[in-house]
């Protein structure tokens, strides 16, 4: 009896609870409808914000796909062939097949000979490989070696065994200091999948830079069909000198590097000006094949002034010719005299 009486007395309370719950549900639905309406009104505004947030975290394209123009370097972007050469009376004996000396600050021509004559350029080809490599690889990136680098002929940095991994920066040093053809092949294959694909990028970049007499067929310069002219090589030298990673490497007379296993190896510069500590010499690249002869891009810095000297097709006197041109430039006040 008591329990039945309690159930009868609790009935009104249950009704109140049920009514309250119904009220809350109806209110929640109404509130939800209101929010949905508000969302519909502001959808266009918020979707733009969401897109701007998600766009910023989308993965960037692979670095190797970026083959657009390089940033403009400081100083001269091109050599000004329209102005007369400053060192008019300078004669070199025996003369190189072509050459050009200029002030890196303003592009003023100091001396020239056949500056637009198209010639084989040997390992000066590696200037373009170096420029593309610093775009493709970070300083800490590693490269997985294949068998091809060790099979290429000519100059080697050495120590590049198939299946090993080596830092790309080590390969850059082998490329620019020891002029290693094996380093050029390793960078090309790692950077583009094959030498042929890498060479396509080299030629595309040459076209974008307006290098009208330049054409590449390999990443290292062994093939005599790698061709250019002194004024185009000057433009490449200007680009290279604007890249700190290349200039730090190119000014070294030697370097000790670890090829990814075993002992360190010593790289010795092919640039005799650096090895003999010619005053102010800070680079940049040498080249030689029987067809191309001796080729050289020398950069001399004294005080705040820098000059670059491009020599193509020298019989044997490229380094002596560079010293002679630098000496005459000092006499003309372009750079300071040697100490």
Largest sheet composition: 5 strands, antiparallel
Architecture (CATH level 2) name of the largest domain: 3-Layer(aba) Sandwich
Number of helices: 10
Shape: globular
The value of Rg in angstroms is 33 Å
Highest CATH level, the class of the largest domain: Alpha Beta
- CATH fold label of the largest domain: Beta-lactamase
What are the secondary-structure elements, in order, as H or E?
A: HEEEHEHEHHHEHHEEHEEEH
Strand content: 15-25%
What is the number of beta strands? 11
N→C terminal distance:
122 Å
Please mark out the parts with pLDDT under 50 across 5 or more consecutive residues, or reply none: 1-69
Work out the count of structural domains: 2
The pLDDT mean sits at 83
Structural class: alpha+beta
Specify the helix fraction band: 40-55%
Q: How would you explain this protein's 3D organization?
A:
The protein is α+β, with helices and mostly antiparallel strands and 339 residues long. The protein has two domains: 1-58; 63-331, 3-Layer(aba) Sandwich (Beta-lactamase). Helices cover 42% and strands 17% of the residues. The protein is built from ten helices and eleven strands. A five-stranded antiparallel sheet has the order 2-1-11-10-9, with helices on both faces. The chain has a two-stranded antiparallel sheet with strand order 3-6. Helix 2 (126-136) packs antiparallel against helix 4, helix 2 (126-136) packs across helix 5 (181-192) and helix 5 packs across helix 6. The longest helix is centred in the first third of the chain and has 54 residues, at 2-55. It is globular. The chain starts with a helix and ends in an 8-residue tail after the last helix. Mean pLDDT is 83; it is low at 1-69.
């Amino acid at each position: 009896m008591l329990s039945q009486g309690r159930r009868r007395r609790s009935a009104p309370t249950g009704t109140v609870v049920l009514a309250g719950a119904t009220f809350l549900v109806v209110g929640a639905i109404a509130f939800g409808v209101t929010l949905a309406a508000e969302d519909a009104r502001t959808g266009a505004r918020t979707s733009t914000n969401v897109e701007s947030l998600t766009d910023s975290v989308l993965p960037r394209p692979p670095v190797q796909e970026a083959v657009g123009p390089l940033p403009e370097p400081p100083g001269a972007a091109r050599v000004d062939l329209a102005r007369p050469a400053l060192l008019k009376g300078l004669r070199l004996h025996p003369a190189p097949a072509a050459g050009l000396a200029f002030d890196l600050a303003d592009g003023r021509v100091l001396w020239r000979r056949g500056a637009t004559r198209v010639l084989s350029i040997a390992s000066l080809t590696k200037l373009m490989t170096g420029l593309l490599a610093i775009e493709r690889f970070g300083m800490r990136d590693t490269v997985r070696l294949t068998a091809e680098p060790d099979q290429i002929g000519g100059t080697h940095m050495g120590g590049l065994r198939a299946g090993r991994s080596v830092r790309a920066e080590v390969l850059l040093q082998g490329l620019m200091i020891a002029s290693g053809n094996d380093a050029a092949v390793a960078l090309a294959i790692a950077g583009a999948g094959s030498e042929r694909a890498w060479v396509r990028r080299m030629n595309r970049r040459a076209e974008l830079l307006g290098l009208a007499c330049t054409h590449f067929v390999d990443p290292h310069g062994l093939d005599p069909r790698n061709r250019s002219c002194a004024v185009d090589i000057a433009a490449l030298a200007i680009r290279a000198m604007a890249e700190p990673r290349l200039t730090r490497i190119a000014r070294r007379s030697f370097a000790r590097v670890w090829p990814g296993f075993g002992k360190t190896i010593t790289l010795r510069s092919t640039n005799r000006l650096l090895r003999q500590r010619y005053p102010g010499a800070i680079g940049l690249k040498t080249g030689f094949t029987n067809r191309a002869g001796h080729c050289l891009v020398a950069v001399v810095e004294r005080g705040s002034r820098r000059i670059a000297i491009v020599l193509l097709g020298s019989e044997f006197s490229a380094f002596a010719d560079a010293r002679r041109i630098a000496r005459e430039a000092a006499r003309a006040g372009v750079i300071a005299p040697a100490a």
